[in-house]
């Protein structure tokens, strides 16, 4: 289907008519295809869902709408200040539209906002971490058992390690020779799996966002305050250490996650301190001592695990993360391992920052 016919079809489906509409890509997410659909009366964000990643899109929407409803109640009670990204129904009151060999949904567009791929300064890091903390607190009394596990074992490092082992054994694209050193490095880190297992029953399972990347935060164009937490696709029960660790992973490096300038990939300690400060402040009445201590493990695990997943996908033939060029997933993996190595090298400093908050 031509892009203009897609725009017209979606625009009519979501009640925006077919006159004077335009559709263009927005943001830099790499799971779904995200577009801004603009019509004279309003704009919507439309997303073609990645059904390889989310084979049950109706469950995805169901989850997100349960969370929308919970956050709406919290806002009415004055307990949540951020904007809520709501799904928009079609004229026939459905939430999914079949178009262009895929499934689409529409979300309310939050205007006057921007997202970042790399954190610019400590104030931005603290603001975003604080907003993710507010989101975590707002979900604390949400019954996460209602949520369908859209991606089972999403942050299960043991399972991710098994997947890497399986794909290494098969080497379906004959790519192993090009990344053997990275694979060996990965295998040498599997002690992290036992460290995680040791937390079972000690650290509480809570509703988590599970994708607290910096580009899943919208900032206000004028005040630079946090405007909304977005991308609720992977909200599922988990540990706060996952959300914390993913912030460290995506906020602290001065380079994007696919940068090949590995010499410049590092943890900026001042950004790490800002993340800790921003995130822990809203959680202070709920967080347990063990949970706070587990943030060090979260820092290591999340950076390592996403590196492992990029590497697995590279060896497997790039099925999960969309790539822009050959070796893109290998470059992403090597970038994340460089960051992970720097985290280990800065252990004393980072642990001291965690302890002092
Ligand atoms: P990821 O790779 O993080 O999983 P994704 O493919 O799921 O991303 P989103 O994070 O939902 O996609 O959206 C991609 C980008 O589109 C965001 O980073 C943001 O810049 C923009 N965006 C998404 N939803 C909205 C919205 N409701 N209002 C304004 N901008 C939005
Ligand atoms: Mg996103
Ligand atoms: Mg997403």
From TrEMBL:
Superkingdom of source: Bacteria
Domain Aminoglycoside phosphotransferase, chain residue ranges per copy: 23-257
Entries under InterPro entries matching the protein: Aminoglycoside_PTrfase, Kinase-like_dom_sf, Pseudomonas-type_ThrB
PANTHER family: AMINOGLYCOSIDE PHOSPHOTRANSFERASE DOMAIN-CONTAINING PROTEIN-RELATED (PTHR21064), SLR1880 PROTEIN (PTHR21064:SF5)
Protein name: Phosphotransferase enzyme family protein
